[in-house]
Amino acid sequence: MLLGADVHALQDPTRPNGFRVPQAEPAQQRSFDLASIIIGTDRRIAVIDGQARREGQTFDGVRLRRIHPDRVELVDQGRVRILRLDTLPQVRSSQ
After folding, report:
1. How does pLDDT run across 1-35, given as a tens digit for each residue?
2. Whole-number Cα distances in Å, 23 to 20, 26, 77
3. Which of 33, 90, 40, 84 is nearest to 59 (CA)?
């Protein structure tokens, strides 16, 4: 009878030296484009990938958790992702 420590010591004699089991590639996160945020007294809307989205809405397998003035929080496979609104360069008026 083999004990637990002995089992780990056994190796497949047909496996080449230094062989390692390939690791699965981590799933790539999908990128989203946050174009604008609209916050009013009774609504919060974020335009993501060209579509108006509301807090609590689920799309493309993610849930829009919260809309802030400068960012949104998405829940993607149980993890919170933050999308930040890109700031536009300052525009100077010509005189």
Report:
1. 555 555 555 667 777 777 777 776 666 778 899 99
2. 9, 9, 20
3. 33
Report how many domains make up the chain: 1
Is residue 59 domain-resident? yes
Tell me, what's the pLDDT at 22? 73
Pairing state between β 34-39 and 58-59: unpaired
Query: Which pTM value belongs to this model?
Result: 0.62
Residues 6+ apart with CB under 8 A from 69: 37, 39
- Give the DSSP H or E segment for 46: strand 44-48
State the DSSP code for 15: S
CATH number at residue 49: 2.30.30.830
